[in-house]
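Title: Prediction job returns without error message
Component: structure pipeline
Severity: low
Priority: P3
Assignee: unassigned

Description:
Job completed but the reporter wants confirmation the result is attached to the right record. Sequence as submitted:
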Amino acid sequence: MTDLGSGHQGRHLVIHAPHLAEFDRARLLAALDVGSLRALLADDGGTLRLTASGDESHLVEIARTAGCDAALLEPDASLAHFGLLAMDMDSTVITIECIDELAAEAGVKPQVAAITERAMRGEIDFAQSLRQRVGLLEGLPTERLQHVFDERLRFSVGAARLVQVARAAGLHTLLVSGGFTWFTSRVSAALGIAESHGNRLGVHDAVLDGTIDGPILDAAGKAAAVAAATARLGLRRDQVMVIGDGANDLRMMAEAGTSIAYHAKPVVRAAASLAIDHGGLDTVLSWFPDQPRAL
């Protein structure tokens, strides 16, 4: 799912390797057989940029097995090319799955996990599984949601920096989640994300009533939200970047010229343009700096 790097000549192999010691970096370069590449362009803050003279996609896998994240990109690849950055929330922008944490608060985590497993096996669809899981949360005081936000929710490494740099570069930022608006609104406010979509939990007298208030935002709904933002902003598909980790992100990732799998399930990684398996979300900024790099 990419409109970037469609040609092979003159692309750059960009490797995000800030954690590598000098010795390990030398071993990586030896494994890449840098002599077959034209030049080492830069070693900038742990980001190696090399020119590739042909279809060097196998080099991405060499870097990945060395514990690095790599991409083959056009030389002028930058955030300035994009107008929209859309991201999933649970296990992407944040490190937790909110419904699992709420289930723990309600004492129904095994039951919720069993329903999730059935959905993953394809026995029930997302909407049905979400209604069943939320039904088990009936009676949970909303103050327990605040407890999860305060005590358990953590932002993924690099999330704040990615959003900050993307917004400074003029991108519209969008959080699209099959999770809950109670969390998407607070996560967006904390990070400065401009727009968010999710599922609204039914609440009565400060207690969850076990329902979803309104239509369910599923994979199709997530894709529709990205498509609507793209059209509203007057963007081309190649100006859209989407980041996600789960199967229900695949349809919205298909709306993007550049899709990035973040510590993702294998099916998502296989379908995405690029994959971050080791680094934080700000790895994106190593691949797509805020301005094209002068060479």
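Comment from assignee: result matches the submitted record. Confidence is low (pLDDT under 50) at residues 1-8.
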